Amino acid sequence: MAKRILVVEDNDLNRKLFCDVLKANGYEVVPVADGSNVVATAKKFTPHLVIMDIQLPNISGVDLIAQLKRDTAMAEVPILAVTAYAGKGDEERIREAGAADYLAKPVSITPFMAKVRSLIAD
Q: Residue 79 is inside which H or E element, if any?
């Protein structure tokens, strides 16, 4: 059975790239473009991993990470944070919210897949 990954990314090209690469590597993927329905979608889909863009319209990816980590059904699911805006202290703030790992954009496929594989023990 394929491992399930929830991809939260508002940029259409990035979302498509992440999903295409993950599907090509045998993962089942559900894309989410809008942060407002992430928690409900995650509960329904029960992913093995969440890939979370940090810069989302209307809500911060950091806030969504914290919400997922507070939910007992989602608390143990690892989250890979992805952001283009990696300023001083951002990685620490993202990890404190509950992200298991972190990647700065632009994302290269090889390191991206290495992080995904390290977070999902196949």
A: strand 79-83
What stretches of 7-60 show up as alpha helix (H) in DSSP? 12-24, 38-45
Per residue in 107-122, is it b (16+ CB within 10 Å) or e — as a string?
beeeebbebbeebbee
Report the C-alpha gap between 120 and 93 in whole angstroms: 23
- Which helix (H) or strand (E) is 53 found in, with range? strand 49-53
List pLDDT tens digits, range 46-68: 999 999 999 998 899 999 999 99
State the residue for tokens 């143990």. 76
Would you state the structure tokens that stand for residue 53, as one six-digit string? 């863009």
Residue-level pLDDT at 87: 74
